[in-house]
Design goal:
19% strand; 10 helices; six-stranded antiparallel beta sheet; seven-stranded mixed beta sheet; alpha/beta
Amino acid sequence: MAGPHFDIVIIGSGAGGATLAQRLAPTGKSILILERGEHLPRENENWDPKAVFIQHRYRTQERWYDKAGHPFSPTTHYWVGGNTTFYGAALMRLRNRDFEKTEHAGGTSPAWPISLTDLAPYYDEAEKLWEVHGARGDDPTENGDEPPYHCAAVHHDPGIAALKAHWENQGWRPFSLPLGIKLDQAHPVTSTCIKCKTCGGYPCLLRAKSDARTCAIEPILDLPNVTLLTGRKVLRLETDGAGKSVTEVVCHTEGGEERWSGDIVVLAAGAANSAVILLASANDAHPTGLANGSDQVGRNYMFHTLTAMVSLTAEHQAITFPKTLACNDFYWNDPRGGFDFPMGHIQMLEYMSGQTLEGEVSDWLPPALMPDVMTNALASRMLSMLVISEDLPSPDNRVKLSPDGRIIVDYTHNNLEGHERLVKALQESLNGFVEHAHPISQHHFQFSSLLPLYGTAHQLGTVRFGADPASSVLDVNCKAHQLDNLYVVDTSFFVTSAAVNPTLTTVANAMRVGDHLIDRLGAKVQKPPPAPPRKRPHAHKAGESLA
């Protein structure tokens, strides 16, 4: 079935796709958003750790495969809003040097085709729109010219404040982790966010987390020029005979195949799936995959090097919202001397209940062997931190599509020395504050047994942008070098992973690309009419009339 023609077709409603749609909506141009998932239901299970972490109620059940052919379940959620509905809401800018060529102990991090200056005004907008709470001037890696946050930093719980003082006594400079939450600390009774124990990893039942569905999709759903279709899994893109323009987007739905067309087509399906769609779209003009003349589609897959430091305190901790503290002292080197290469970033992890803990270890210890009384006792004494280090791009780390349609992630960890040094420094720093600290490192496991907390949540690269068509897939505006009307705005455009969470950069870049498209289309931003009464989000089913 062929649908009507649109000015812009966007594939995916996560941070990149949703933000681009929101940026373009005021132009009045007709916009179609194709989302393979549905609207996430508001239900008690949103806050149920057993449903979320043990039963994996909201994660995809599809299987991907590692380089050895072992199947695994990716930490991916196919719902309106994408993975941001489940993220930990840490929203950080890339640092100035993250955009520059940087030498690491394990190799070279290449330069981006844009600089911090190009993204700075969009970072400002994104932080305001996504209600990022933070404090300027405390992070030693800041550029120094950033404007104040629009929302004050989230107050530390007593146990986190004590940890902050403990680190400061060692000469560290911990700072408030920037968080996107709808929190009114001056009026806690009426605040949307209540600083509960079910934030990162959960969908927020109160809609208090700044994510793509609440910040970008829902504000534009009632506009007459915006159409969101759920239950549409895009299979491939078809082009004209010369292979210069995408002519149709082919979807699988419950009701059969659908075809959609637009003057501009934008991929935002996630780093792995966007690469897979391009590879599956091979034709005579693009025999190795659409836009793949550089042979870079699917290559340079990154997802950060991560270790969780799980520590047990001697006493029970009165902490319900621990994810408010971070440290960048070791971001570029070891300030104590002896190692002059980047090491990475430290941030507090979310509160872990007993069943959350069960879910995190369930791949190697069945939940039945971890009784609730034991895990809840551990959780009440547990303080967890996440160490994030840069994963260097490598052409051999890639997403591939097998002849029978399987998604294969061929990946080998790299650049580990700085990360291991930072893990050791963190563990040593906790002496005198915790009774025991145990690192659980992602790179000690195969893909098939990665912790659910990690998995593929920070997937990056695969369709990177650059000035040279021989070494990149996209140009500086995130348009495919080889096609006139194809853009990509999810995390696959990243050249490097840096060592901080990628969501804010994805949002800022989608705003930047949106402004480029407004200029390209000769569009004008129109003042929106008064909003009609709010309607319940409606998921159009396959075959349903759009009239």
